[in-house]
């Protein structure tokens, strides 16, 4: 069941989104060869606490960390670790912030040092695909319009869109209706209405779109070992168009 949000609820989520964006800015300044994703995770938890917020996914179905940290062929839900990142790596940091009951969700991929040409293009295409999806997030459109815009662009650039993981509604809990596919047909799916708050979070692979699951039961990675990038925003559907709540 889709829960439409009041202006006050959206403002609470926007406040959480501003803090989340600020957290990503801090992470961007930390990113360098030699840092570990566990160091980033520890920083995030302390930074949120110092700003009166908590990491919503910590403890979610037993998930043990404040962030998800996915490196190279990991698609999503990677566990932070003590392994040092090296030049040429891609790392995606994904988190949900709870500030005074308002939730916001955003993932960002970061380049460690210098990337090879394919990895750099993968990052650029993934970020642009998010922008193209957001352009379709207007009242009266359907969720399929978002997915089609992302899929047609990504596949036209020679990459693939992960299908096993999706965007979603967000509100009092992290995952609400509707499901936001990053592929599909225009004019199909749930109609977008003013007051809906959703995430758009395309995961784009350099190779095939299929994924496999690690033994930890959380981390998904590409079946062919090729790289993945992801960018995600939380946004509200308004009469004036999409309002990005997690803008950097």
TrEMBL record:
UniProt source species: Metabacillus sediminis
Pfam families xref list: Peptidase_M24 (PF00557)
GO molecular function, one term: initiator methionyl aminopeptidase activity
UniProt-listed PANTHER family: METHIONINE AMINOPEPTIDASE (PTHR43330)
Co-factor(s): Co(2+); Zn(2+); Mn(2+); Fe(2+)
Keyword Protease on entry: yes
Domain Peptidase M24: 11-239
Co-factor remark: Binds 2 divalent metal cations per subunit. Has a high-affinity and a low affinity metal-binding site. The true nature of the physiological cofactor is under debate. The enzyme is active with cobalt, zinc, manganese or divalent iron ions. Most likely, methionine aminopeptidases function as mononuclear Fe(2+)-metalloproteases under physiological conditions, and the catalytically relevant metal-binding site has been assigned to the histidine-containing high-affinity site.
SUPFAM superfamilies xref list: Creatinase/aminopeptidase (SSF55920)
Reaction catalysis annotation: Release of N-terminal amino acids, preferentially methionine, from peptides and arylamides
Protein name per UniProt: Methionine aminopeptidase
UniProt entry keywords in alphabetical sequence: Aminopeptidase, Hydrolase, Metal-binding, Protease
Gene: map
Chain sites annotated for binding a divalent metal cation 2: 105, 168, 201, 232
Family, per entry: Belongs to the peptidase M24A family. Methionine aminopeptidase type 1 subfamily.
Purpose of the protein: Removes the N-terminal methionine from nascent proteins. The N-terminal methionine is often cleaved when the second residue in the primary sequence is small and uncharged (Met-Ala-, Cys, Gly, Pro, Ser, Thr, or Val). Requires deformylation of the N(alpha)-formylated initiator methionine before it can be hydrolyzed.
EC number of this enzyme: 3.4.11.18
First-level EC class: hydrolase
Self-association state and partner proteins as the record states: Monomer.
Gene3D superfamilies recorded: Creatinase/methionine aminopeptidase superfamily
Keyword Endoplasmic reticulum listed: no
Binding positions (substrate): 77, 175
Residues binding a divalent metal cation 1, per UniProt: 94, 105, 232
């Amino acid at each position: 069941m889709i829960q439409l949000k009041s202006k006050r609820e959206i403002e609470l989520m926007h406040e959480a989104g501003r803090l989340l964006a600020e957290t990503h800015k801090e992470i961007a300044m930390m990113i360098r060869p030699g840092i570990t994703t566990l160091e980033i995770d520890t920083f995030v938890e302390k930074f949120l606490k110092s700003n009166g917020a908590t990491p919503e996914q910590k403890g979610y179905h037993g998930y043990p960390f404040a962030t998800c940290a996915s490196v190279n062929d990991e698609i999503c839900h990677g566990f932070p670790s003590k392994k040092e990142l090296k030049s040429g790596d891609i790392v995606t940091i994904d988190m949900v912030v709870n500030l005074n009951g308002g939730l916001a969700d955003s993932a960002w991929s970061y380049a460690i040092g210098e990337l090879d040409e394919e990895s750099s293009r993968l990052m650029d295409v993934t970020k642009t695909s998010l922008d193209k999806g957001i352009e379709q997030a207007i009242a009266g459109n359907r969720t399929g319009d978002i997915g089609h815009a992302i899929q047609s662009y990504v596949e036209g650039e020679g990459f693939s869109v992960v299908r096993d993981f999706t965007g979603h509604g967000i509100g009092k809990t992290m995952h609400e209706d509707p499901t936001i596919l990053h592929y599909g047909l225009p004019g199909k799916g749930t109609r977008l209405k003013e007051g809906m708050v959703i995430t758009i979070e395309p995961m784009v692979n350099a190779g095939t779109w299929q994924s496999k699951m690690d033994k930890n039961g959380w981390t998904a990675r590409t079946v062919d070992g090729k790289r993945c990038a992801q960018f995600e925003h939380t946004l509200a559907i308004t009469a004036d168009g999409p309002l990005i709540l997690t803008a950097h």
